[in-house]
Amino acid sequence: GIAHDFNNMLAVIIGFTERAQDLAYDQPFDRKQLLESLDHVLKAAERSSDLCRRILSFSRRQVFDPQVLDLKALVADTEPMLSRVLGEQVDLTYVLPRQAYALVDPAQLEQAVLNLALNARDAMPQGGKLLIELKTVDLDEEGARAHHLEQGSYAVLAVSDTGAGMDAVTLKQVFEPFFTTKSAARGTGLGLSMVKGLVKQSGGHIYVYSEPGLGTTFKLYFPRQPEPGAEALTLLPLAQPRRDNHEMVLVVEDEALLSAMVTKTLERAGFTVLSAPSAEAALELVAAIDPPLDLVLTDLVMPGMNGRDLAACLRKQHPRLEVLFMSGYSDNLFAQGELRRGVNFLEKPMSAAVLVAQVQQLLDRRARNTPG
What we know:
Rossmann fold, Heat Shock Protein 90
């Protein structure tokens, strides 16, 4: 039952209590490490109390207690606990480069990170990598609409693993209350629905990207808030497109709204753009066009043939073709080599300015390397 989530906290309490007992008998006596272990026990007990409040919040019987806080500091505080709970088989990495303020309930955010981390651990029974990272992203109107977000600046908390991944059927149900792929003894199916509830209450959105064998990335989007005492955040206006030529770009994306946004953005920047809803359709289109393409912008994970295989097929016919992959997976996870990746990568969601700049950069490089 719901005892699953309490058992997670009990595991922390028991583990650090046992460590404290061992430290008490060590010679020479290490008072600092003993106090650190007891501090973790106290924090886990406090989080157990917070869990009761979170369950009540889920059932709408407890007031949400949001505060404008630095997500970097909040997330960093979870590292000692997660390192202990996840065990030695999971390689835990934090990438928290900068402060990002958002309106969140601190206890609920910490519990959300724990739930996502433990789900990742369960998906990696033989061990693997878990990456927790914090980024900021500015979304213009079109980029936001394509990803079902409001225009503005967001703090993005991503939790990525190299585990078994999920199929399309599981993905459709993953946030439903009481849905779980675990046994009754290991989970209730409330963890991810509670994570989604936290994000929604904070005015944000949650997305999941996954494919069997490629791991999973959860992204939590929180509207950024100004640092207490600082001026409000503003979005910089987009730079005007400067291209006056007509290089040909093929956009391969199975999400129709996103494909339309990318296509219109690139057309407005001066490119000639074709689009295809699948890799198979893209191959048919390329075979029928003349002159050949300059660049393919393709989603990495699609039904049927994926973006990597599409790129391999196209480069056999057009060795100088530039390929830019886009995906909701974490770019840092790709950089660790755990997920097969292309040389060029664009992380979703992206603003129009970032999209145009990266396409332009690749085509400029191609032009410089063209003989004659």
